[in-house]
Amino acid sequence: MNDLDLVRTMRADAPIPSRQRLDGGRDRLLAAIDSPSAAPRSARPRRRRGVLLAGGLAAVAAGAAAVVAVQADGSPVSLHGAPAAESVKYADPLVERAAFGWLPGGLHANGYVADHQNEKFFQVVAEDGKAGGSVTLTAYDRGKEPALGYLPGGVPAKRVPAAAVNGHRAYWIFKPSPSGQSSFKLRWQYAEGAWADLEGDGLRGDAAALTRTAYRIAGSATFGGARPIAMPLHVDGVPAGLSPDRTVLNNGAHGEVGAIVGYYAGGPSSSLGISVTKSDGTVGADAPGKPGAPAAGRPRPNTKLRGYPAYQAKSFLLVYGVNGFDVQIDASGSVLAKVDKTGGVAGLFRRMTVFGPDPANWTTNPVN
C-alpha cells in the first residue's frame, strides 16, 4: 500500500484504497470499510458494524438457537427451516454503473463496490495478479464534485492542471512523477454534474508512459450501465424498509473471493451485514471479549451447526466452511428487532443459499 492509499484509508467515506481495495480476504474484507475517518463530514454519521472477519470483531452477548445447514458437495448449500419472513423486493445491490474499455495487458476487472454512504459511488477494480499492477475506476453519483481528500503527510490535495478527457475538463489529484513514481490519480467531469476518478498503482513506465496509459483507460471508460453483477450468495427474509449501505464483490483480487451486502434503517446503530469469504480451512481460535469490547481476532467456535464449527450469539453469527465459504451475519438496533421476528440472524442463515466459489453458479439476485 503506497502513502496515498494509507491516507485514503483514514477516511471512512472514501472509496477503498487501491492496495487494500475490495476489502479482500479474511484480514482485509472490511478493514477499509470500518477505518476511522480523519476528515470532517457533514453527511449522516458513519455506521459502525460488528462484521469484521478478523482483528475487529465487536463482541456480542452469547446465546441463540442452533442453525441448520445442509452441505451438498460442490453444489450450492441451501439453509432452510426459519420462520416465514415477509416477501420484500429489493433492487439488485450491485449494478455495473461504470466499466473499463481498454486496459493494459494482463489486467482484468475482478472487484466491485457500490457505496451509498456520504459520497455515493460505484467502483470497479482491475488487477494483474502476476505483476501486481492495478487500476481503479470510481464513478460518483451526480451532484457536486466530491472532496479532493489528502495527500501523503495529511496535506490537503489540490487540483493539478491536466489535459481534457474526451473533451471534458480534467485535472490530476496525484500526477505521475518524473522520478518514476508508479501511482497516479486523475479526475474528470465526464458529464454535467458527474465526476469520475481513475487511480493507477504499481504500473510500469515513466511519467509520460503512465500519462498515456491513464488517458487511454479514462477515454475508453463507459458510464451509466445497468448490468447486474452476479454474487456467490442469496438470502431471503431481509426485512422491509431498509436502504442499501455498501455492497462489495471481490472476484479474485489477491487470489481471494468474498462478498458483502449491507443495509441500514437510518442512524448509526441500526444495520444488517451479510458476508461470505472464501475459506482457507482455518477456524478462529480467539475468545470473544466482554460485551462492547472487540476480540483479538476471529472468534473460537462455541457450537457446531450441522457439522460446521460456528460462533453464535444473539446479533452475530459466523459459520466456518459452508460450501467453501465462511458465512457471517450481524444485525443491530431496529433492524435486529425486525430480524428477530423471523428467527434472528440464525433465521437469515437458514434462508441462505451459498453458491460456492465458481462464478458460473452465482446469482444476480442475492437478496430476497
From TrEMBL:
Keywords per UniProt: Membrane, Transmembrane, Transmembrane helix
Region described as Disordered: spans on this chain: 282-304
Residue ranges crossing the lipid bilayer per the database entry: 51-70
Keyword Membrane included in the entry's annotation: yes
Biased composition (Low complexity): 284-300
Domain of life: Bacteria
Protein name, as recorded: Uncharacterized protein
Species lineage: Bacteria, Bacillati, Actinomycetota, Actinomycetes, Streptosporangiales
